[in-house]
Amino acid sequence: MAEPRTIDNLGLGPSIRWAQDQAFIDQSIVKESSFVSLQTTIDVSSPFFSSEFDLLFQIKQRFAPWALMLAPKGFNMQKMRLFTYQAIPSLGSEEFLSSQMQKIRDKVALNKEDRIKRREEGRGAEFAWEDEREEEEEQRESKTLIALLEYVHVLDILMAQINARRSQYSKG
Question: Which of 5, 13, 53, 71 would bridge with 75, disulfide CB 3.0–4.6 Å?
Fold first, then answer.
């Protein structure tokens, strides 16, 4: 059995062999390989499961492209996406979601101040319970929306961690 060796004990032969092999390798493959990862990290926007119904009624063939012109730039990057970094990409970025949550909070606070001013001026609802019901409903809706957006934010964090682990293991 051969004795194990470290890289520093290999000698000059493997280095010469590597230099000679580089002449035969197509360098464009190495340079263009970074474009492959771009296709695998774009957000998912369509389902990928093909059901028996689709096969039976040929749903995919119904919407097949038929034009002889070229597809728009970036069109091919929109399909067959493997991984995503957001649970619901159409909602926007993390900064946009946090600004939306702040807008909801500000709107609720502004409406509350407006109701207080109307009551002081005597222009409130005919019955006090109407204002209270409106305020409770607004609070409930705003809490629901904010909880949803916070949950989506947590899901995005989890998706980022999952993709980081996937990338870690795919790199070896």
Answer: 71
Q: Give residue limits of the domains in the chain.
A: 38-171
* Residues in Cβ contact with 65 at an 8 Å cutoff, skipping those fewer than 6 apart: 71
Q: From CA 101, how far away is CA 68, in angstroms rounded?
A: 46
Mark out the alpha helices in 63-127 (DSSP H runs). 94-121
* Contact of 140 with 108, CB cutoff 8 Å: no
Q: What is the pLDDT along the chain (172 residues), one digit of tens a residue?
A: 677 778 777 888 888 888 888 887 777 776 666 666 655 655 555 556 667 776 666 666 555 555 667 767 766 555 445 566 777 777 888 888 999 999 999 999 998 898 888 888 877 667 777 878 888 999 999 999 999 999 999 988 888 888 777 767 765 5
Distance in Å from the first CA to the final CA of the chain: 28
What stretches of the chain adopt beta strand conformation (E)? none
Q: Which residues of 93-119 are buried (b: 16+ CB within 10 A; e: fewer)?
A: eeeebeeebeebeeebeeeeeebeeee
Nearest CA-CA partner of 105 in 135, 66, 82, 139? 139
